[in-house]
Design a protein that fits this description.
about 80% helix
């Protein structure tokens, strides 16, 4: 009796052909969806609502995957050679976009910033941004874990999206959480059978966090002009208030569209400063997660033996270092404008394709099953940004 069954060459060749054909079809579909989202985001009505191309990308991807082609996306009942190859090819492309292109997009995003821009906003704006990020992130994780009993990963994603820069921060944090998860798997592989389910839950958590950022960021666009008047801010302080508290860069632009041009300029610079603070935020968050993991090992040392060579180290994501390097290069080197324009366009496309991939990998059922607790956490952090951010800007009397 043969020890194993060898697949016939014709069947193997057919599977490979199906994989490549499916990969090409999936990539074409994702590019078309990203182009459609970019076109929709440029419509005046959506611009006025502060709805950018990134939330639209994940939304259309989710609609397509959940309504139009769930079998093709997820591979239900894929038993034939052709259908199995179709599933494998599509999954490989979506995984590449959601992981590799995401990191590349974050790195290229750094070419939009310079040290001179960040320094020009003043120490008060930097202090407000740091206090805002620290408060929202710490309180968001604490509320999500202790009060709402949400998973740690979901609490972190909602908190970092609210605290830093919306969908881009959420997507940038995901690889860091995956690295910590892989480190946990290295010391305890008793849950190997559940890893596929854990990946599905991770994608659902990403989708929920991005959806909440889009929802509350859009509400901010409608409320900020009125809030600036209610707080009695002048044009300079109003821009700093919006830039230090609004979720997305696109939403900061939309919220100031009807105000004085100086408001929009200040809001954009302060918002970009928050984007730049994403790098140190991720580094500190990674260190905290690693210390938390080590502390858990110490508590459970008698019940969970350590594997040899499974030492802990701080997960410093390479794309975070690349993001910092891009800012420094854009500040110190005479880069041609054509190269900077290309980097900005490439960053936008990489992030849109990553969002489309996330949407295609997300099922509506998982988001509905999450219930109202994630929505409540997003609401509380949004209210903290509106009221607490206004109080901070009033306290420091930014001018």
């Amino acid at each position: 009796m043969a020890d194993h069954i060898v697949k016939p060459p014709a069947a193997e060749a057919g599977t490979q052909a199906a994989v490549w054909r499916s990969a090409g079809q999936t990539l074409l579909l994702m590019v078309l969806l990203a182009a459609l989202c970019q076109w929709l985001a440029a419509l005046p009505r959506l611009q006025a609502m502060g709805i950018g191309s990134l939330p639209l990308s994940i939304l259309l991807g989710m609609v397509l995957a959940s309504v139009l082609a769930p079998r093709w996306i997820y591979g239900h009942h894929a038993t034939t050679t052709g259908s199995a190859g179709t599933v494998r090819g599509g999954q490989a492309v979506r995984r590449f976009c959601q992981q590799t292109l995401l990191k590349l997009g974050i790195v290229l995003f750094g070419f939009r910033l310079t040290l001179e821009q960040l320094w020009g906003v003043g120490w008060q704006a930097l202090l407000v941004d740091v206090v805002t990020i620290a408060t929202v992130l710490i309180l968001g994780i604490w509320l999500g874990q202790r009060w709402l009993k949400l998973p740690l990963r979901l609490s972190i994603l909602i908190a970092v999206g609210s605290a830093v820069c919306g969908a881009a921060a959420i997507m940038a944090t995901a690889p860091l959480l995956a690295a910590v998860r892989q480190s946990d798997d290295a010391r305890d592989d008793s849950d190997l059978a559940d890893r596929a389910g854990d990946e599905d839950r991770a994608e659902q958590h990403l989708a929920i966090a991005v959806a909440l950022v889009a929802l509350f960021g859009t509400l901010s666009v409608l409320l900020y002009p009125w809030l600036c008047q209610w707080f009695g801010f002048d044009s300079n302080t109003a821009g700093l208030y919006i830039g230090s508290t609004v979720h997305e860069v696109a939403q900061a632009v939309a919220a100031t569209d009807a105000l004085d041009p100086a408001v929009q300029h200040n809001a954009l610079i302060v918002k970009l400063l928050r984007v730049a603070l994403l790098a140190p935020t991720l580094l500190l968050l990674g260190e905290w997660l690693m210390r938390r993991s080590v502390a858990g090992d110490a508590v459970n040392m008698s019940a969970r033996p350590q594997r040899a060579g499974a030492g802990k180290r701080l997960p410093v994501p390479g794309f975070v270092l690349g993001f910092i390097a891009a800012i420094i290069a854009n500040s110190l080197l005479p880069l041609p404008q054509m190269l900077l324009d290309f980097a900005a366009e490439a960053s936008a496309w990489c992030l849109m394709l990553a969002m489309v991939a996330l949407g295609l990998n997300t099922r509506w059922q998982g988001m509905v099953a999450a219930g109202l607790r994630p929505l409540l956490l997003g609401l509380l952090l949004w209210l903290l940004l509106l009221a607490g951010g206004g109080w901070l800007n009033t306290l420091f009397a930014l001018a």
